[in-house]
Specification:
about 220 residues; alpha/beta; Uracil-DNA Glycosylase, subunit E; six-stranded mixed sheet; 8 helices; 6 strands; about 10% strand
Length: about 220
């Protein structure tokens, strides 16, 4: 990892700009879930991870309470992550089909994964000022990922916040609609592709399935 990326990730982990989120992460790490009682929770802001020469960026809204907030890595240690990494493996983007902890040997090919918000918000509802505080980190990630061509936004909230980011930073005023798998051209010539979130709820309701997700990932790979 480059020195600039290390500096950025270090500043993310040390960030205390949102007292409500810091307090909530701590609360989760003390109360825990039954199945994670013996685990030591990360309980700090969660950085992005992957290939810093990435051409593809996968973006979620925020780390899960007992996933990323517990393990210290986005989409790691929860059911959404289990589904996502199985699909990434099938699309030849990751070297293994699971993401369980930071030292599990997982590597991503030309892909970086991050969240717009680096801390878990109560009820998955971030406040405007929290999103604003964190947007600097997202902007820096986009700046450092110099080879980036495609962004996949997982879920409508992530998609909407990506657009908000571009409106704020690029005076972008196009109205984009969340439709799974549609390609949108952004003002910096990147392609934005919305995707249904790989949540257990969406998977159980058959809104998203492995075939659909793998197909979308392969579509993104063709573009890059």
């Amino acid at each position: 990892m480059s020195i600039k990326f290390k500096k950025l990730n270090n500043s993310i982990v040390k960030c205390k700009s949102c007292p409500r989120l810091i307090a909530f992460s701590k609360k989760i790490s003390i109360e825990k879930r039954k199945q994670n009682m013996k685990d030591t929770y990360w309980a700090k802001p969660v950085t992005g991870f992957g290939d810093i020469k990435a051409k593809l960026l996968i973006v979620g809204l925020a780390p899960a309470a007992h996933g990323g907030t517990r393990t210290g890595r986005a989409f790691t240690g929860d059911k959404s992550g289990d589904f996502l990494f199985n699909c990434l493996f099938k699309a030849n983007i990751s070297n293994i089909s699971t993401s369980t902890h930071i030292d599990d040997g997982l590597k991503l090919n030309k892909t970086y994964i991050t969240n717009i918000l680096k801390c878990v918000p109560p009820e998955d509802k971030p406040l405007k000022n929290e999103l604003s505080n964190c947007s600097t980190f997202f902007k820096n990630e986009l700046t450092l990922l110099k080879n980036l061509k495609v962004i996949i936004a997982l879920g409508k909230v992530s998609f909407d916040n990506c657009i908000e980011f571009y409106k704020k930073n690029y005076h972008f005023d196009k109205k984009l609609i969340f439709i799974h798998g549609v390609k949108y051209l952004l003002p910096d010539n990147k392609i934005l592709i919305p995707s249904y979130h790989p949540s257990p709820r969406n998977v159980n309701r058959k809104i998203i399935n492995t075939q659909k997700m793998v197909s979308l990932l392969k579509k993104a790979k063709k573009i890059i």
